[in-house]
Amino acid sequence: MLRGLTTVSHFSDxxxxxxxxxxxxxxxxxxxxxxxxxxxxxxxxxxxxxxxELGILDRRFAPPGAGTPGGTMTYWAVDDVExxxxxxxxxxxxxxxxxxxxxxxxxxASVIDPFGNQLGVMFNQHYLDVFTGRPA
Length: 136
Hints:
Blueprint: E1 7-12, H1 15-26, E2 32-36, E3 39-47, E4 52-58, E5 75-77, H2 81-90, E6 94-101, E7 106-112, E8 118-124, H3 125-133
Parallel strand pairs: 1-4, 5-8
Antiparallel strand pairs: 2-3, 3-4, 6-7, 7-8
Protein backbone atom coordinates (compact mmCIF):
# COMPACT_ATOMS: atom_id res chain seq x y z
CA MET A 1 0.00 0.00 0.00
CA LEU A 2 2.42 2.73 1.14
CA ARG A 3 5.62 2.24 -0.85
CA GLY A 4 7.85 4.96 0.50
CA LEU A 5 8.46 8.64 0.91
CA THR A 6 8.13 10.76 -2.23
CA THR A 7 8.07 14.45 -1.26
CA VAL A 8 7.99 16.27 2.05
CA SER A 9 6.31 19.64 1.47
CA HIS A 10 6.93 22.74 3.55
CA PHE A 11 4.80 25.82 3.03
CA SER A 12 5.77 29.47 2.94
CA ASP A 13 4.25 32.88 2.28
CA UNK A 14 7.67 33.89 0.91
CA UNK A 15 8.97 31.07 -1.28
CA UNK A 16 12.19 32.84 -2.36
CA UNK A 17 13.12 33.49 1.29
CA UNK A 18 12.34 29.87 2.22
CA UNK A 19 14.40 28.61 -0.72
CA UNK A 20 17.34 30.78 0.34
CA UNK A 21 17.07 29.51 3.94
CA UNK A 22 16.93 25.85 2.95
CA UNK A 23 19.72 26.26 0.36
CA UNK A 24 21.90 27.71 3.14
CA UNK A 25 20.94 24.90 5.53
CA UNK A 26 21.42 22.09 3.01
CA UNK A 27 24.39 23.52 1.13
CA UNK A 28 22.72 22.79 -2.22
CA UNK A 29 20.49 24.59 -4.69
CA UNK A 30 17.05 23.28 -5.71
CA UNK A 31 16.92 21.10 -8.81
CA UNK A 32 13.38 22.12 -9.85
CA UNK A 33 11.41 25.38 -9.78
CA UNK A 34 7.95 26.34 -11.02
CA UNK A 35 6.37 29.75 -11.29
CA UNK A 36 2.65 30.49 -11.28
CA UNK A 37 1.55 33.85 -12.65
CA UNK A 38 5.16 35.08 -12.69
CA UNK A 39 5.75 34.28 -9.00
CA UNK A 40 7.91 31.44 -7.68
CA UNK A 41 5.36 28.93 -6.38
CA UNK A 42 7.13 25.58 -5.95
CA UNK A 43 10.72 24.43 -5.56
CA UNK A 44 12.22 21.00 -4.91
CA UNK A 45 15.50 19.94 -3.41
CA UNK A 46 16.79 16.35 -3.70
CA UNK A 47 18.79 15.30 -0.70
CA UNK A 48 20.20 12.47 1.28
CA UNK A 49 21.13 8.89 0.59
CA UNK A 50 17.92 8.14 -1.32
CA UNK A 51 17.52 11.55 -3.00
CA UNK A 52 14.24 12.24 -1.22
CA GLU A 53 12.47 15.42 -2.22
CA LEU A 54 11.94 18.43 0.00
CA GLY A 55 9.43 20.74 -1.62
CA ILE A 56 8.80 24.39 -0.76
CA LEU A 57 5.27 25.35 -1.80
CA ASP A 58 3.59 28.74 -1.77
CA ARG A 59 1.14 28.55 1.12
CA ARG A 60 -1.73 29.64 -1.16
CA PHE A 61 -1.61 26.18 -2.77
CA ALA A 62 -1.47 24.22 0.49
CA PRO A 63 -4.39 22.01 1.55
CA PRO A 64 -6.55 23.60 4.27
CA GLY A 65 -4.82 23.44 7.66
CA ALA A 66 -1.50 22.26 6.21
CA GLY A 67 1.78 23.74 7.29
CA THR A 68 0.85 24.55 10.85
CA PRO A 69 2.90 22.98 13.65
CA GLY A 70 1.29 19.85 14.99
CA GLY A 71 0.04 16.61 13.54
CA THR A 72 2.57 14.56 11.61
CA MET A 73 6.29 14.94 12.17
CA THR A 74 8.80 14.02 9.48
CA TYR A 75 12.31 13.27 10.69
CA TRP A 76 15.27 13.60 8.35
CA ALA A 77 18.18 11.25 9.03
CA VAL A 78 21.35 12.99 10.24
CA ASP A 79 24.65 11.73 11.63
CA ASP A 80 24.86 14.25 14.49
CA VAL A 81 21.56 15.42 15.97
CA GLU A 82 23.07 17.92 18.40
CA UNK A 83 25.21 19.65 15.75
CA UNK A 84 22.34 19.74 13.25
CA UNK A 85 19.90 21.03 15.86
CA UNK A 86 22.34 23.81 16.79
CA UNK A 87 22.80 24.73 13.12
CA UNK A 88 19.03 24.95 12.69
CA UNK A 89 18.82 27.27 15.69
CA UNK A 90 21.77 29.35 14.42
CA UNK A 91 19.96 29.82 11.09
CA UNK A 92 16.84 31.14 12.82
CA UNK A 93 14.85 28.03 13.64
CA UNK A 94 12.82 28.07 16.86
CA UNK A 95 13.40 25.24 19.32
CA UNK A 96 10.55 22.75 19.49
CA UNK A 97 12.24 19.67 21.01
CA UNK A 98 15.86 19.62 22.08
CA UNK A 99 17.90 16.49 21.30
CA UNK A 100 16.27 13.58 23.10
CA UNK A 101 17.40 9.96 23.23
CA UNK A 102 14.52 7.50 22.87
CA UNK A 103 16.62 4.40 23.36
CA UNK A 104 19.93 3.11 22.03
CA UNK A 105 20.43 4.29 18.45
CA UNK A 106 17.47 6.68 18.33
CA UNK A 107 17.86 10.41 19.01
CA UNK A 108 15.46 13.11 17.78
CA ALA A 109 15.17 16.90 17.83
CA SER A 110 12.93 19.40 16.07
CA VAL A 111 12.57 23.08 15.30
CA ILE A 112 10.02 25.35 13.70
CA ASP A 113 11.62 26.88 10.62
CA PRO A 114 11.30 30.64 10.03
CA PHE A 115 8.26 29.93 7.83
CA GLY A 116 6.22 28.04 10.44
CA ASN A 117 7.01 24.42 9.43
CA GLN A 118 8.14 21.63 11.73
CA LEU A 119 11.55 20.26 10.84
CA GLY A 120 12.58 17.07 12.61
CA VAL A 121 16.02 15.48 12.60
CA MET A 122 16.93 12.02 13.84
CA PHE A 123 19.85 9.71 14.31
CA ASN A 124 18.29 6.35 13.57
CA GLN A 125 20.44 3.22 13.66
CA HIS A 126 17.80 1.27 11.74
CA TYR A 127 18.07 3.76 8.85
CA LEU A 128 21.84 3.23 8.74
CA ASP A 129 21.45 -0.56 8.89
CA VAL A 130 19.00 -0.53 5.96
CA PHE A 131 21.16 1.88 3.97
CA THR A 132 24.38 -0.07 4.43
CA GLY A 133 22.63 -3.38 3.70
CA ARG A 134 21.07 -2.33 0.38
CA PRO A 135 22.40 -3.71 -2.90
CA ALA A 136 24.85 -1.45 -4.76
